[in-house]
Amino acid sequence: MVSLNDVSMTYRGGAHAANHLSLEIQDGEFVFLVGPSGSGKTTIIKLLTGEVQAEEGALSVNGYDMRTIRRRQLPELRRTLGVIFQDFRLIEDRNVYENVAFAMHVIGARRREIRERVPYVLKLVGLEDREKRLPRELSGGEQQRVAVARALVNSPRLIIADEPTGNLDPAKSLELMLLLQKINELGTTLLIVTHEKELVNAFSKRVIMLENGSVVSDGTGRYYGNETE
Fold it and tell me: Which of 14, 150, 179, 198 is most buried by a 10 A CB count?
């Protein structure tokens, strides 16, 4: 579970990245996080992954207290998280299988575990026949599926997707979101950060809207860019 209670953080210059922000995400939820540029979406990602720390308030992620977590505990926390980036961040000289397996090597997984888990995840995202391809030999949609597989391979409790459809056309964006919905239905909590209102409105999910570092609306409804209904 994710819990932020009265969390505040200010960047140099006085801008409120988080302004007495409170929200909770329960295990198994599918949540969209929306809001205009500078509203605090990126800051929340950094707070949840331990990249930055809140100045005030209480924050916990998957049982870890992020105000008191020690540096040596951060790798443990991050094993419970999967992060999908807009720019994919694939290793260009490694094939699909190796890109996904790398995420398991990093946490010290055994070779047998890797041999069993990677093909399963590649099949789940529809890339079982692409495992020997290099990133440059894949379409944009396929590269994003590799990124999804890499985020999923260590069985995280929570996947955070930061503008995952930003580099995809509308058809591929919808295809990716349906895949993420399938992953959510298998039990993984999903937090999708996006500005694409058409995509949000295609799914009847919880929508949290931020503005100036605070939650201004939270519920299931349509998203109209700067307003939800």
Answer: 150
CA geometry: angle at 64 spanning 63 and 68, to 5°? Answer: 145
* Terminal Cα distance for the chain, rounded: 26
pLDDT tens, residue by residue, 33-60 = 999 888 899 999 999 999 988 999 999 9
Tens-place pLDDT, residues 209-220: 999 899 999 998
Could you count the other beta carbons within 10 Å of the beta carbon of residue 87?
12
Segment 86-100 shows an average pLDDT of: 93
What's the CA gap between 141 and 172, in Å, rounded? 6
Determine whether 203 is exposed, middle or buried from the number of CB atoms within 10 Å of its CB (0-12, 13-18, 19+).
middle
Give the C-alpha separation, 116 to 83, whole Å.
22
